[in-house]
Amino acid sequence: IYRWTDQSRCRGGGMEQDLTALTSAAAVTLVRLMAADSWDRAKGVVVSMWRRAHPLQADEIDAELAAARLEVLAAHDAQDEQAELDLVSEWRSRLRRLVAADPQVVQELRQLVEELRPILAEAEDTRVSSVRMQARASGQGRVYQAARDQKIGGP
Hints:
Blueprint (H helix, E strand, L loop, with lengths): L13 H20 L5 H15 L4 H21 L2 H21 L3 H22 L29
Helix pairs in contact: 1-4, 1-5, 2-3, 2-5, 3-4
């Protein structure tokens, strides 16, 4: 993930490079969270930001985020990395237009990245890329397998 930090503003290139780094970090974080279990929480943060900046667009953005999530999930199933990259590009452009229309949104976008970053880290810590299990039981044997939590017996 591209990480935006205050230090990235000091590397030269001025405000334009700063905004590019910020919108890139936000877009990558957003798209990666679309495939996570914590997506609803992340989407709420994004829609709230949009609602404060452009209240009339918030419902449309909410619907478009939901559609984008379906695209990301389909891309994951098909192992289509290009589709995810296309979505990152699309959301980077949307975020740049949002900031261009209202420069006051820059600080809110920074806060958004800072707020979503821990959610992404948590989601990536719990994500399992693949699980392969194999078991064989004979006679009276039993096999219990789980890719994660498993509760056997009890209330």
